[in-house]
Amino acid sequence: MTHHLIITGSSRGIGRGLVDHFLKKEDCRVHGIARSPSDLSHERYTHHRFDLSELDKLEKEATVLLPDIEAGDAVTLVNNAGLLGDIGHLGKVAIKSFQKVMDVNVTAVAILTDAFISRYAGQKGRRVILNISSGAGKRPVDGWAAYCASKAAADMLSEVAAKECAMDENGIRVFAVAPGVVDTEMQTEIRSADKSQFSNLQRFLDLKAEGELSSIEAVAEKLARVMEGPERFEEVCLDVRKL
Ligand SMILES: NC(=O)c1ccc[n+]([C@@H]2O[C@H](COP(=O)([O-])OP(=O)(O)OC[C@H]3O[C@@H](n4cnc5c(N)ncnc54)[C@H](OP(=O)(O)O)[C@@H]3O)[C@@H](O)[C@H]2O)c1
Q1: Exposure pattern of 191-228 as b/e (b: 16+ CB <10 Å)?
Q2: pTM of this structure
């Protein structure tokens, strides 16, 4: 039995952590998706350079990004790629970036989820969709209107997809997992925000200074528990810090 993983945002951060985690396991084949080329050369890794904000192209080519599997193989889609967008209060921030945040954080997730379900529904073997969520989808954070709205939408998309998969008895489990505060480039971007546009700036500076950020490796290990043992989790929306 092979475990196939399709991981978006595989070039760095949490996505890269997941790629490295699963490539250590002999039975895993990993398909990474990101705009950047990959520096990784591994017989069980395939890299797809793809801009997930190109939605028409994604709709046409989504099934090409999903691997052929044998009966009984496990397959997991990790919708991890995400962006914060411009940080700033509405009325003062460039609203232009709003669309791109929604495209990558929500619509691309929906397109890949749709393609995964139509491709693998009803097949034998473990099938999981794991969307990387955020606490920002559950509470308002000033300066992050697009990001908060996109993560709230992705949570509800996951809830609906999970409900439909259960109703249709197609065997696919869907989760939205918040990873906590993780030491990635996204956190570097957050710490470079303009203080007047983001009241939480000092909190994020302190978390970094006090070594409170989770490591990519630790988060990848916890996310893997959900992918490898979905039957142990009933809720759709999970938090890594409670796993
Ligand atoms: N870090 C945290 O503390 C934290 C907290 C809560 C939630 N999250 C969530 O965790 C996920 C990963 O975040 P991270 O911290 O690892 O971020 P990161 O270090 O900024 O990495 C983001 C990844 O997404 C990819 N990506 C961005 N735009 C893309 C596009 N248009 N097409 C294809 N790939 C794209 C990037 O690859 P390319 O640039 O090569 O395309 C990169 O691999 C995100 O969904 C984020 O919202 C992170």
Answers
A1: eebeeeebebbeebeebeeeeebbebeebbebbbebbe
A2: 0.98
